[in-house]
Design goal:
The chain is of the alpha+beta class and about 110 residues long. It has a single domain, classed as Ubiquitin-like (UB roll) (Roll). About 15% of the residues lie in helices and about 25% in strands. The chain is built from 2 helices and 5 strands; from the N terminus they run ββαβββα. It has helices at about 30-35, 90-95; strands at about 10-15, 20-25, 55-60, 70, 80-85. A 5-stranded mixed β-sheet has the order 2-1-5-3-4. β3 and β4 (about 70) form a beta hairpin. The radius of gyration is 13 Å and the shape is globular. Bound molecules: FE2/S2 (inorganic) cluster. FE2/S2 (inorganic) cluster binds near residues 47, 50 and 54.
Length: about 110
């Protein structure tokens, strides 16, 4: 099996629903989710190609005033980013890794 991650030298820290994770720099956010949960993300309904929208997240970048929505298959991870909302598909795939007291998404 080929290595799914782009070459990286270090891990960077991101926050998802207040929980911190170390993920490989220079990779798309969706790849980073795969790094966090390699046994579920590859089986999610993701196109990896900016079409399905199932990878949508809301996140706050370190330099931004406000949270913005983005496609995680497109966005390259940035140290210090804080993800406050995940699509339902992502939540499902990452459920074992996230805080257990998350509100149920609509
Ligand atoms: S994985 Fe389909 S739009 Fe991002």
């Amino acid at each position: 099996m080929s290595e799914p991650f782009r070459p990286y030298e270090k891990l960077v820290e991101i926050t998802i629903y207040g929980k911190k994770f170390q993920v490989p720099e220079r990779n798309s956010l969706l790849r980073c989710f795969q790094f966090i949960s390699p046994e579920t993300i590859p089986y999610g309904r993701f196109c990896w190609n900016q079409e399905c929208q199932y990878c949508r997240v809301t996140c706050q970048l370190p330099d931004d005033e406000e949270a913005t929505e983005m496609l995680s298959c497109k966005f390259i991870v940035m140290a210090g980013m804080e993800i406050s909302e995940l699509s339902q598909e992502l939540r499902w795939c990452l459920r074992a890794k996230l805080p257990s007291d998350l509100p149920v998404s609509s």
